[in-house]
Amino acid sequence: RDVLHRVRDRWPAHVLVWPVAVQGETASAQVAAAIAGFNALSPRGAVPRPDVLIVARGGGSVEDLWPFNDEALARAASASAIPLISAVGHETDTTL
Q: pTM for the complete prediction?
């Protein structure tokens, strides 16, 4: 919600949200699927393809943030044709 609030205050823009779990066993697969799903949208479709993706999640314990250290998720982010901003947690993480 914080990201949506800041975007609304600073850059009035249309924001699409793809709801996903951000912790737990299914989180990394859900986030990777959302990245792929946004990339599959047509630029001129009923739901236009976004200009940029933001993968965001607030802080938490190492265990809470662990899904973002998943190789398949890192590969999905790397494969994205849409520029992607990663905004995960509040501490530097250099695992991947």
A: 0.86
| pLDDT 10s digits, 6-29 | 888 998 888 899 999 989 999 999
> Residue 61: which pLDDT band, with cuts at 50, 70 and 90?
confident
Residues in contact with 95: Cβ distance below 8 Å, sequence separation at least 6, in sequence order: 69
Nearest-10 crossing angle of helices 27-40, 71-79: 10
Strand, helix or coil for residue 17: coil
Question: For residues 60 and 23, what is the distance between their CA atoms, to the nearest angstrom?
Answer: 9
What Rg do the C-alpha atoms of the chain give, in angstroms?
14
